[in-house]
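Q: My hope is that you can spare some time for a protein that puzzles me. Underneath my words sits a plain record pairing an amino acid chain with its backbone structure tokens. Those tokens are not coordinates but codes from a learned vocabulary of shapes. Thank you; the sequence and its tokens follow:
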Amino acid sequence: MAAEQKEIQLANIDEELAALWEKEHGQNKTRACLFNLVIYTQKAHRDQFYKELIKSVISKFPSRVIWITSDDTAEEDYLRTSVASETIGEGSQQIFCEIIHIEVAGKLSERVPYIILPQIVPDLPVYLLWTQDPATENTILPSLEPFADRIIFDSEASVDLQEFSHSVLSLINRFHCEVGDLNWTALSGWRKTVSSVFDTPEMLGYLSQSRLIQITYNKVGSNHFQHCEFEAAYIQGWLAAQLGWKFKKIEKSEGNHRLTYSTPAQEITILLIPQELPSLPPGALLALEIESTANKAHFVFQRKPESRQIFVQYSDQNRCDLPFYTSLPGMAEGQEIIEEIFYHHPCAHYRNALELLATIPWKEAL
């Protein structure tokens, strides 16, 4: 359980952290830290979501958390710091973790890197979760990047997916560290499931000759999510990029996003279809349906709301195979940050998808 945060003087961070531990020392608690987790957020934007995310990380893997909250709406500059502790586990197996919270507004943002760097536990990895649109910030991120082992972006914070894709591609070319993306990681199970079905030249041929792809996603209302369509946008971008399709246009049609791609042989239509399903997180993929001109092949991937199972069925003009169920690989929804930290695999597919998404004017279909 987290101790109440106490505002302190900047010069006293180390002293106050030591005092927090002194209060807990001798109570069957162990002070531990596997890595440094630095989180950058905007004030009042998904605050509760990120608090829960921090808890989910340190409940499984003890770490030192440095949380920066920036306030772009403040009328006056300010810089405040506070410290707190989080104890995980029970009985004689309790682990003590430290949280440093920095709140900043205005020109004082320039000082933040100088506060953070002395608080990083040396000789341990540094993971930076960046939840602001990278296209709009150029003060803190460049200063922290040289010290990070991995930077993880949250595209949900972006204003425009096209602009976000351009910015992240530019940063990938400049940064020395690995780059991750929460929405991309959230789709890892779907990508593996689709890849496992289209795993032969014949099946891949059906996919490459698609005529219509319908992607249904969860657009249930939430104060924490503004862009429920982003995961659906990522999965279609991944498919189109890997199959070499050329983007032609995007439009809004009957509440759906309608994208048109082309190959030398034909045009492909992709529909992103919203549906409300309160039992699953906002943005979660619900279904993927593919119609191919080759042999009139038809594929259905349908998520079961009560589990992580996917219903898969194939049919064509000559036969209808028995459907089967498969489980989504990877971690459950809400655990993307843990998967990014511990199970990240650099993937050219992510870069390819970003390059394609950077060509699509998403604002035209709002």
Q: What stands out?
A: The mean pLDDT is 88.
